[in-house]
Amino acid sequence: MRDFEREKVKRCLPSLMSFIWGIGCITLIFYSPRYACIVFLIGLILPLAESIIALRRAHFPLYIPTPDGSNEPFHPSVRYFPKKFCGFHYWMAFTPFPVKAKPYPDRWECPCVVVSQDGLHWEYPGEKVFLDDLTQQQITDKGYFSDPHLVFDEIKGTLCLYYRLNEKYADKIKIFVIFSRDGINWTSRRECNFSEDLNEALRLVSPAVVKHENVWQMWFVSENHLKRGQGNICYCESEDGINWGKSSSVTLDGLDNIHPWHIDVENFNGLIYLCIYDRLADNISLWYSIKDNINSFKYLKTLLTASHCLGSFFSERTYRTCMIQNIDRKICFFFSSGNYFRNTIGILTSDLTSTGRTYIIRGSFLRGVQNIIMDIIWKYTHFEICLIRRIIC
Questions:
Q1: Distance between CA atoms of 139 and 107, rounded to whole angstroms?
Q2: Across the chain, how many H-helices and E-strands are there?
Q3: Is the pLDDT of residue 147 over 80?
Q4: For residue 357, how far is the Cα from the chain centroid?
Q5: What is the Cα–Cα distance from 37 to 31, expressed in whole angstroms?
Q6: Which range has the worst mean pLDDT, 67-71, 154-158, 348-352?
Q7: Contact, 186 vs 180, CB < 8 A?
Q8: Average pLDDT over residues 341-369
Q9: 198 near 173, Cβ under 8 Å?
Q10: Angle (nearest 5°) at CA 286 between 60 and 346
Q11: 389 pLDDT exceeds 60?
Q12: Could you give the domains of the chain?
């Protein structure tokens, strides 16, 4: 049984608080109310003590406000500018993905852009708005945007934002790109063209785009390749960033049974690095190009897995991760994460060696405390809910 499955089994077992409160009820019925109050008090102190312990070992996510009000950012793509771009060092594209939103969580997965001076405190460069939104018909049909990826064209001095549209009613995927010179005013979206059928041949997911000199490079995950048993990361090129040529498969060496779902690709110190979120193992791993071969990558190390720790903002899942190299030459990884109540974005740092340790950077203290409180409440009420359901059924 995998670790996260063991954790879910443990959560369904009777909690200590439930046991103590049961003793309190027996004491109240058969003995003295005074002793019952003491037992109930012990039952109330336990969650408080556990929350203090959880707070000491917790990691805290970033706080990033979202236009929909959920403040649940997801799927980050970050660019770092040593000399600043339009006044800011860090630019991030993301989409909100509120866990329990109406009419459905994906409806709010619309591209947004925020900025920061230190990578920890984020704000909007202009108004707090979506850069693109669904039509009412697309909402009715439960379509959604997803997978934003931010690129900087150094020659033109332009930000380029790629993102995906899934029109469920037509079972059709489209890739759009918009451009901006200031991060506030964006062009109308343009649809990318592919030499292969985007839906029948590829089913493109999570495009990761790099502009190297005059060549636009795109790595992406292909759902259809995965179904046919092929390597499901593909690569293609473009001269203008809009019209893309025929794709080729990417080989991965050094780790068996890898199932890429979301990726990021960056060029650091002359080598190309690939960051993979594995949807079955639920972890994030780092790979590097072999002899500058853009179609072949070798496993370096696993960066992060879901923690399964009480109060942790990535206790239940990790997701798409992007990477940057900042002014200190450190590699920072902005990763999507979540628990039962909320999706968030966190930061970790690591070097580009197989033995280097990974460190989680602290984000918002208040957001971390909120996660702990919600986790404590869930833990100490879940058993009672399960027990009531069993009695009723």
A1: 7
A2: 6, 22
A3: yes
A4: 21
A5: 11
A6: 348-352
A7: yes
A8: 75
A9: yes
A10: 15
A11: no
A12: 3-57+374-392 (no CATH), 73-373 (2.120.10.10)
